[in-house]
Amino acid sequence: MCLAIPARIVELEADKAMVDAMGNRFKAKTTLLPDAKLGDVVLVHAGFAISLVDEEEAKKTWELFAEIENFEKTQNKLSG
Amino acid sequence: MLDRILSAQHTIEQACEEVGREITIMEVCGTHTVSIFRSGIRSILPASLKLLSGPGCPVCVTDQGYIDAVLELAQRDDCIIATYGDMIRVPGQAGSLETCGSKANVQVVLSSTDALQLAREHPDKTVVFVAVGFETTAPATAVAVKEAAAEGIENFCILGGHKLVLPAMRALLGGMNDRVDAFLCPGHVSVIIGSGAFAEIVTDYGRPCVVAGFEPVQIIESLADICRQLADGKAELKSMYGAVVTEKGNTAAQTIIAECFEPADGYWRGLGKIDKSTLVLREPYRHFDAFARFGLEDRPGEPIPGCRCGEVLCGLIEPRQCALFGEGCTPEKPIGPCMVSSEGTCAAWYKYGRRS
Predict the structure, then answer these.
(1) What ipTM was reported for this prediction?
(2) Which end of chain A is least crowded, N or C, by CB within 10 Å?
């Protein structure tokens, strides 16, 4: 539940956004971040953008997620 | 990166030696719990530095009475239970949402507004949103409630169980576990309430508070800062998550929380009843309260026999001190909530091999 993902706003209409995180696209609302603009990178939590994130920070998180995904795959391979 | 980690490690070692006694730092965030385990941070810390996981996992802190209320509603033919996925497997007196509700009655949603959409699509049923979580999920619930009110959607309600993190920290320091020397403060809660909100813990209890992000290097640097403060006899508030967290937090989110909710006394697993620690709907939104709509009472539940999640949540014991840990209580077949949630302390201990 606590998991929040940085994602870039690629479409925005009123408070309804389409966001992109590492090529995965999903819907998010910007109701709680009224100043969010197209192209902004935002932290998405439970379907809502809750803060702006700087590009550098977002990249680090995306890399971390990719690393975890690889790690989990390896773990599964070893145990399975 | 490595030089930053080594430098932080050095600071920690030196500061711990200066302090000359055991230091206890508590994190109150499920994601910190997992990140600390996953990265193996503990393995490079001195033995005198103890890291505890506090009441930071939303599923875990939710009282048994609330879980039983959810399960009671799941039995009704006229209701659809809309819940975040984490709650599905939490056991209550009568099974869990996974086992006890008929499948059609329970829907996993990723957002509060998805729950509201279910209400639009099923006008013949009442959709009950399982509204749990800390200040991070509370504003999302508030948005859904406001939308329901604006559209006049009457077949939507919430079972309010949102918790506030500061009253829990105060309850711990006020007696439940005053051995805690300092807090590693939660990143995402701080996005909403602002890092400045923790100033009261520093001022009133003289405990250092450092807001940390989730990368291992940020966590270990935050721990180093805390240790340095303790060695110097200081208690300060700092944020090491400046790229995301501001001092004032998300004011739009704070406003909408205040518009829809007011703090009330609430029950926590392990911590009992804490003053003004739970959010309940205020007028004109009270009729969206599922407790009132279905005549349910928000009361403390019966503890699960043998389960010591409560003590784990207060940092009083480590999971392996519970007789059920790994022996009957596993992530595959959990008995207590700390083993259910992937952010739970017991699940993290189990998964990352701290069983011996």
Answers:
(1) 0.89
(2) C
In a domain, B277, yes or no: yes
Query: The tokens of B307 are what?
Result: 């389960």
Tell me if B224 sits within 8 A of B231, measured CB to CB: no
pTM, two decimal places: 0.93
Domain that holds residue A29: 4-79
Residues of A in contact with B59 (CB under 8 A): 1
N residues, chain A: 80
Evaluate whether residue B125 is within a structural domain.
yes
- Give the 3-state secondary structure of residue B314: coil
Of B38, B84, B214, the CB nearest to A1: B84
Q: What is the residue range of B341's domain?
A: 309-351
Among all chains, which residue has been given the structure tokens 């390896």? A74
In tens, the pLDDT along A43-80 reads: 999 999 999 998 888 888 888 777 767 766 665 444 33
Per the structure, how many domains does chain B have? 2
Judged by DSSP in three states, B163 sits in strand
Tens of pLDDT, residues B65-101: 999 999 999 999 999 999 999 899 898 887 889 887 6
- CB of B112 closer than 8 Å to CB of A32: no
Residues of chain A with C-beta less than 8 angstroms from the C-beta of B244:
43, 51, 53, 57
Query: What span, in angstroms and rounded, lies between the C-alpha atoms of A51 and B248?
Result: 12
In contact, B83 and B107? CB cutoff 8 Å: yes
Do both B280 and B314 map to the same domain?
no
Query: What backbone phi and psi angles, to 5 degrees, belong to B282?
Result: -110, 170
Tell me the chain B residues in contact with residue A29 when contact means C-beta distances shorter than 8 Å: 111, 113, 143
